[in-house]
Amino acid sequence: LEAQYREQLSKIEQAKQMEDNIIWLKTIPMKELVNRKVIPSETEKGPLVREVLRFYGVSSVAAWHSVWDKPAAAARRSPLLSSSPGPTSAWLRLGQLEARTIECAPYDKERFTANLHLIRALTTKPPGEFVPEMRRLCAKAGVALALVPEIRGAPWSGAAEWLTPSKAMLLVNLRGKSEDRFWFAFFHEAGHILHDSKKETFIDDGKSYRDRPEERRADAFAAEILIPASLN
Fold this sequence. Notes:
By secondary structure, this protein is an alpha+beta fold.
C-alpha cells in the first residue's frame, strides 16, 4: 500500500510539473526560434520542453526562472526584461550564443575607447563594409559584437552584458532599423560597457527608462561620439 501511495504521489507530481512546463512554454516565442532553426519543430510537449531548455543551457524550468526572472537575477537586469521575459530572454540568448562564437582578445578599455572612434568613421560606409570592420575592431578590444534581428514582443534597440570578466557582449537589433538609430544604439551600449557595472545586463528600447543615471550617461556618450558638442 505504501509503494502504491508513493507511486501515485510521483505520478501526480510529474503531471503537475508537465502542466507547469507547458504553461512556461507558452511564454517562449517558439515560432521565432523554430523559424531561426535554433530549435527543431516538435509536436510532443516533453521533447519540446527539453529542446528549449537546451537552447537556454539550463536543466529545468525552475533553473530557467532562477537565471532569468527571480528577484536576484532581475535586479541585475533592465526593467525591460521583466516586461516580457520570454521574448526578451530569447533575444538575449541568441545574442549570447552568437557572441560566444566570436574570438576576442581580453577586454582592454583604452583600446575599446580608441577603436570606437575608428568605428565612428565607418558610419558613412554601407553595411557590407562597416559590419566586418566593426566586429574586428570590437573583438580586438575584448567586445563581441552580435547582430540579432528583433523578436516580436522584444523590439529592443540594443543590449550590453559581460559574458566573462574579460569579454563583453554588445548586442544590436537589425530588423527595420534606420541608420541613425542603429548607430546610436551601438554607441549607447558601448557606453554601458565602458562606464557601468560588469554585473548588470543593460537593455535599451530607445526611449524608456531614461530617468536612470546609467541610461542618461550612455545617451550622452553616444551623442558626443556621433555629434561632438564642439560642433554644435
